[in-house]
Amino acid sequence: MPRILAALILVLSITAAAVAAGQAPPRAIDLNQPGAMEALERSNPAHHEKIGQIMAGLLKRSDREVPRWLQTSFGARDVSYAPILLTSDPPKRRLAFALDGTRYLAVVTLSNLRGVIVPLE
Fold first, then answer.
1. What is the rounded distance in angstroms from the CA atom of residue 117 to the CA atom of residue 121?
2. pTM for the full predicted model
3. Which site in 18, 40, 42, 105 is 20 to 30 Å from 8, CA atoms measured?
């Protein structure tokens, strides 16, 4: 819960700073929306190619490696890959990053993990 609160405060702080600086928040594209990748392929083939490589290589890296890998390999900024699993089978995790002023959001299926129910003690 403290991490969620900290993430919320961080997002609000960044938004407030952008508004105070007179900048519009970056455009955001939800990659999980139907047709999003096809539209991206038509409008920005370079980003489509990078995002395809990101999704293909994401599960090959540890959670801690992902932000740095995105920054160094793809020039991504403002990477968010919080260690919070969504309750689904298989588990999922939220990924967000910016490429050239466009923010991309995705819910990534972690097919390499299996969810386990642990009773609360």
1. 12
2. 0.69
3. 40
